[in-house]
Amino acid sequence: MLPQFLFSSKSDWAGIFSASLCVVHCLLTPLLMVLTATFSWWAGLSYVFLFISFYAAFDTSRAHTPRPILLLIWGGFVLLTLSIILEDAFPVLHKFSYPASLLLVIGHILNLRHCKKCGTHE
């Protein structure tokens, strides 16, 4: 059986990677809208990021993560989810996806640092 820290570490890195790609995705969307008329597949990527973010947040929650870090991660996930799902009805919510992704990245980085200090990750 593999040690728990391997899974926790992978989920933190997956969360950081997914949230970072989400920001790049959001930044490139207006450019793609100008360059091409058919980019419906591009909008679907948001849901891929949500799926990966949920997995990373859920798996990180199973580890020995302090409550404030979990609040950052889950708060970022909820904000990101709401901003993606309700974006069509309320376009201003698109702007909330940036701080939501930032909260996810910060939360996962803090968890990596915490686990390194306490020896959960090697």
Automatic annotation (TrEMBL):
Sorted alphabetically, the keyword list is: Membrane, Transmembrane, Transmembrane helix
- Looking at the record's lineage, which domain of life comes first? Bacteria
Identify the InterPro entries for this entry. Answer: Mercury-R_MerC (IPR004891)
Q: Name one Pfam family in it.
A: MerC
Keyword Membrane belongs to the record = yes
Q: What GO cellular component term, any one, is given?
A: membrane
The portions of this protein that span the membrane are 12-33, 39-57, 69-86
Q: Which GO terms describe its molecular function?
A: mercury ion transmembrane transporter activity
This chain belongs to which protein, by name?
Answer: MerC domain-containing protein
- Species of provenance: Arundinibacter roseus
